Amino acid sequence: MFKLKTFIPPAAVLSLGLAWAPAHAQTWTSDIIDFTLVEGDLGALGDPEVVRDDTGVSLNFNPGPLTFDALSVGAGQADNGNGNGNGNGIGQVDTEIAGFTIRATVKPVIPDQTITDVSWSQNGVYQVTGDGSWVSAFSSLRIVDPETHQSIGDTQAETFSAFGADDGTNGGPWDLTASNSVAADTVEIELTIKDILAAYAPADGFAWIEKDFGSLRIDVSPGGAVAPIPVPASVWLLGSALSGLIMIGRRHLGTASA
Question: Is residue 14 over pLDDT 80?
Fold first, then answer.
């Protein structure tokens, strides 16, 4: 198991089946960042869970079992060329592809709070058997300014690949992360994620790869001010009681001196 950045050429991968589907009106929110689906379809990734912590917000995707996977089974026969994508036959590649664009906007809860870093992480499992069989996972992350549509930093791309062998089965977990830093004073971005799983198996081979988790992470700066800590009501009651005791004490002192 190893990573090979050039196993699937990025230019070739980006050209595979990435026609956008119309975006549904989907939004997700936290107390510091709002997310809006701008373009594409989350498809087999499923609806994300919003997770907030001290330094940022994550959208965590948990695809259901076998909903985002690629499977190729060598059947020892020529590919029938019917394009059904079932992976059967010699030399057929099965792929699962997802692509979407999300806008992330910082809420003005804390003055001067800005976006600092963005990452897209994913992991899953794979199994590959037979010489010439292989599996691969590709992911790319592109960030742009929503107003000018100019890129913020370089497009990041990562690829995981594993190969089969004659003497047994290769398999286990896989993971990869594409990340990018954001320029200072950025409060709104659009980010485009493109994912591809691919599997290939010649005759008598087997190749399967599945995605089990994906996480879009937005880190933010602490901002220029600290939110005030609320004072419990019991403190105000205690303060009122002490004030009353002080006034009573002063009256007693005045009476005694008279």
Answer: no
Give per-residue pLDDT as tens, 56-81. Answer: 999 999 988 788 999 999 865 444 44
Q: Taking the CB of residue 228, how many other CB atoms lie within 10 A of it?
A: 6
- Contact between residue 76 and residue 9 where contact means Cβ atoms under 8 Å apart: no
Query: Distance between CA 87 and CA 134 in Å, rounded?
Result: 13
Q: What is the 3-state secondary structure (H, E, C) of 166-198?
A: CCEEEEEEEEEEEEEECCCCCCEEEEEEEEEEE
DSSP assignment of 197-222 equals EEEE--TT-EEEEEEEEEEEEEEE--
Report the chain's mean pLDDT, rounded to a whole number: 77
The shares of helix, strand and coil residues in the chain, as percent rounded to the nearest 5, are 15, 45, 40
Contacts of 253 (CB under 8 A, 6+ apart): none
Give me the DSSP letters along 126-171.
Answer: EEEESTT-EEEEEEEEEEE-TTT--BSSPPEEEEEEEE-BTTBEEE
**Model confidence at 244: pLDDT above 70:** no
